[in-house]
Amino acid sequence: MSKPFVVGLTGGIGSGKSAVSDLFAQQGIDIVDADVVARQVVEPGTPALQAIIDHFGEAIVTDSGTLNRPALRKRVFDNDLDKQWLNALLHPAIRAEMQTQLEVATSPYVVFSVPLLIENGLDSMADTVLVVDCSEETQLARATRRDGSNIETIKSIMASQASRQQRLEKAQYVIDNNGELSALPPQVKSLHQQYMQQSAQKSAR
């Protein structure tokens, strides 16, 4: 069975990746979302969550036994060693699960949505790269409004990600999300047609 055509979707925090991947899903396209997979591998009862509790202590989980993400994020942003330890634990588990989900996708092509697609070299798992682009000012405004985080936290997350220029240099396709959400559906529909054609060409080879 041939592997599906994989569209690597990325963009900085607050760029609107989720809105774009939702629109592809509405076209009947399977989405493999790194953020979803990252939650799946640390669900209650998973080996990864137990390792995190052993390392950081019980305070890292909520009363209901789920991972307290804001507490964990704060710990690793303040401590490089903890960040390295966490990455060494989670990256292989997440990558393996993403690979599995890509292989079992059944739509004509699959959208592989990864915030750190470029930074972690995961663009090597995609046939083409689609970047959701907006200005850094727009990113900052959207992310602080959405997450309720302070500006300094969002700025430090942005600083740890690839720059806007680095992402655009890797992109074969770009969606402009500087404006209103209503500007997204026409762009996604146009790309959907192109990806359907590229998928058909790949499977014909």
UniProtKB/TrEMBL annotation:
In which domain of life is the source organism classified? Answer: Bacteria
The protein here is known as: Dephospho-CoA kinase
Mention any Pfam family matching this sequence. Answer: CoaE
Subcellular location(s) of the protein: Cytoplasm
| Annotated function | Catalyzes the phosphorylation of the 3'-hydroxyl group of dephosphocoenzyme A to form coenzyme A.
Family under the similarity heading: Belongs to the CoaE family.
Listed under catalytic activity are: 3'-dephospho-CoA + ATP = ADP + CoA + H(+)
Which residues does ATP bind? 14-19
Chief subcellular location: cytoplasm
The gene name reads coaE
* A Gene Ontology molecular function term of the record: dephospho-CoA kinase activity
Source organism of the structure: Alteromonas confluentis
Q: List the EC numbers from the record.
A: 2.7.1.24
InterPro entries, per the entry: Depp_CoAkinase (IPR001977), P-loop_NTPase (IPR027417)
Q: Which Gene3D superfamilies match?
A: P-loop containing nucleotide triphosphate hydrolases
